[in-house]
Amino acid sequence: MPTLSQRIGLCSASALAILIAATLPAATQAPPGFSPLDKSNPAASKQDGSLRPHATPPLPAALDKLPVDKLKLPPGFKAEVWSHGHAGGRTIVMGPKGTAFIGSRIIGRVYAVTEKAGKREAKVLLQGLTQPNGLAVKDGALYVLAINKVLRYDNIEDRLDNIGTPVDLTDKFNLPPDIHHNWKYAAFGPDAKLYIQVGANCNICEVNPGVHGQIRRYNPDGSGMEIVARGVRNTVGFDWHPVTKELWFTDNGRDWAGDAGPEDELNRIPKDKEGANFGFPYCHANGIPDLDIKRPDPCAGVVMPAALTGPHTAGLGIKFYTGGMFPAQYQNVAFIARRGSWNRGQKTGYDVIIARPQPDGTAKLEPFMTGLLDTGKNEFYGRPTYLLPLADGSMLVSDEQNGAIYRISYAAR
Amino acid sequence: MIGAVAFWRSLAFSLATVAVCVPRAGAQAVPLAERIEQCGGCHGADGNSPIEKIPSLAGQPEFFLLNQLFLMREGVRLIEPMTPFVKSLADGEMAALAKHYAGLQPKLTGAGPDPAVLARGAELAAARRCASCHLPSLAGQEQMPRLAKQRIDYLIHALTDIRDSRRSGADTVMSASVVALSDADLAALANYAASK
User: Fold this and answer.
1) A266: enclosing H helix or E strand
2) Residue of A13, A61, A233, A359 with fewest CB within 10 Å of its CB?
3) Which CATH class is domain A65-410?
C-alpha cells in the first residue's frame, strides 16, 4: 500500500497562489432584467426544510479509516487505495510524465501526486484559490480554472518544486463574475479546444441564455469562444464518445422541487445540434415543465437527455472507457461518479454507475461501484466525484469526503 | 491578555516577518491556553467579542470554526490581521480551538438590535430562507455559522462582503442568497439575526 505524508508544508509555490488569490473577483453585476434570486418554493415542494448540503471535511481521513473495504464491484473487479491525504480532492488529470493533479473546491488547493521509489506522494501544489475544480493538461502545461480565474503553468512537471509564475489568461477568457455554480469543469476536446461550462447562477431562476447555463469552447489562449450547449443548469463533468466524438455531459437538476426530482441528466450533444438548448430553467429531465418558472411550450426544441440519472444524485465526473484491462463489454461505456444527494430525505447516489450508449442515442444505466451508502441508516461513507482511466486500463475514482483516490482493476477469475 | 496597542505592534511585526516556507509538522507547538489568550485579545476572553467588526466565536458550530481556521491558514479566506495567528496552526491545534469556542456561551455584545427594523429583518430572513441552513434558531450547524447573538456590526460587515463579492471561502449559495439586497436590508437582516 502506498504511503503519503499527511503533513504537507507551506512552500514557495503555495505562497504564490496566496498572492494570486488576493486579487478577488469584481463585484457581481447582474445583467439587466435577470435576477439570480432563487425562485423555488420549498414549502410547496413538501420537502424537509432542514435539508442542506453536506460539509466536506478540511482534513483527510486516516488511511485505516478509508471505506475501501465497503466498496462493492462486479465479479473480477477490485478496489484499492491509490492515494490519500489530499483533503477535498475531486478532479483528477494526468500529466504526460505521470504526475496526477487533483483539484478541489472550498479548500482551495491543487495537489500533485508523484511516485518516488515506489511510493506515491501527494503535495500541495497550489493553495488559496477560489474553488480550483477545473484542471486540464495540454502540451505539458497545466490549466487551472478557479472561480473567475484561468491560469496556465507551462512545463509543470519539470517545475513541481518551483512552479513559477503562471500565465494569467483570466482576461482572455472573460468569464462572467458570478460566483454561484461557477466553479469550473474543463477538458480539451478532440478538436484541441478547451471546453468549459458556465453554470446557472442560481438554483432556479431566469438566466441570461447569452451568459449562463452553457458549455463553451475556446482556443487554448482564450480566443474564439463558441457556445456548444445552452440551457444547462450545472454540468461539472463531460467527455467525448471515443467513436462518434460527440460530447456527453452530466447535469445536476434543480433543488426544492420535491424529493423525487426532477431527475439529474446524462446528455449527449448530437453532431448536428451544437449550440442546442437543453431546457433550463423551463424544462427539466425528460420533459418536466418547471414548477416555479412557467412559459408556454417549455420543452419545445429542447434536446432530451440520453438517460435520467436519478433525483438529486449529483452525477459529476464521466469518462468513456477504452482501456485494455476491463472485459470487452466495458469498451466505449461511460463511467459516471455520483457524489450523492443532499436535497432529498432518503439519500441516494454515492456510487459509480455505467451508461451503455444505445444505437438510438440514448443510454442504459447499470450500477458499478456501490457500498458507500447505507440506505437503512441513511448514512454515507464517501462521495465519488471524478474518474480517470489509467494507461494500464485500470480506473481511478476520487472520494472527496475522505480525501482519497481508489484504483479499480480487473483480473479474470 | 494583551492590550490593543501592544497587539497591533505585535501584528505589524508579525506581518513583516511572514515566512514563505513553513514546515508545518516541525512548527513549535504553542500551549492551547496561550493560543486562547491570543484569540481572546480581540474575540473576547469568553469568546464574545468586545471589539467592533470582530466576530464572536462563542457557541459557533465546531466544524464551522475548524473549517474557517483551515481556510484562513490556507489563504482561501484572506484576513490580514488573522494571518500571523493562523499561519502556524497545526491541524490538532485548530481542532482544539474549535472545540473550545464551540463550547462557550454566546452573548450579544456591542449595540443591541434596533426594534424598528426587526420585522423587516424577519421578513427578509424568511424570503431568503436563512433558517434552511442556519437553523430556525439561527444557531448554525456544521459548516454554517451561528448568526444568533453575533455582533450586529460584524454581521453587516460579513453580509456586505458577501454581497459585493469580497469574501472568499463562503459557500457560493450565500452570494445567491443576499443578491440585490440594499445596505438597509442587510442591516435589517443583521439586527434580526443577532436578536435571535
Assistant:
1) strand A263-269
2) A359
3) mainly beta
